[in-house]
Amino acid sequence: MFGRNPVTIDTDHGFLVRTRDEYVCELGTTYDPSEIIIYKNLRMNSSRITNLPEPTLPHEVANKVYVDSNQRKILQGYVPNLRQRGGSNDKFGFNVTASSCRSNYFLPIHAFNGLYSEGEGVHGEWVTSETSNFWLQIKCPDLVRLWRIALRGRNSSTERIYRWQLEGSTDGHNFTTIFDPPNPTYIFMYLGAPLLGM
Predict the structure, then answer these.
(1) Is the residue at 5 inside a domain?
(2) Are residues 95 and 53 in the same domain?
(3) Residue 64 and which of 4, 91, 99, 131 are 20 to 30 A apart at CA?
């Protein structure tokens, strides 16, 4: 010990810690004196690793701010398959509502169950009891930036929706039009694939 100063180890080729002939860590190397190499697992004992910069290389560790604010494209879809069980769905955080539904066989949640089959029941559809100005919405547990949507409707010409638009909101009260297709643009289903027809 020398007063309040730490013990200083001054070497030309770094300081290597080895246990039972196995490398544990190396402080400084011949090629990079500022580099620390860890050869074994690092146990933090429930402590934190802090002050991480924003990553620039593919193999770097990311901090929480970067992960939370980073926008990622999700190819398989963000909204999960929702099922109706006793009046509530089993996927926490997704709340589906609509302006109306024709009956309990055509609940709004059916539009997001991912198991479409034309008809009634939990694998059926959402059907409104209105003829105009009806709406269907889903509240997500977190803010989402949309980059792709998939729409599907009945292939019956008498039940197609010809005039529609897609809106988004961050507070559930003030909505912004995201996509307003030219009229008429109807949503229909062809051989099980969702398509947009003009």
Answers:
(1) no
(2) no
(3) 91
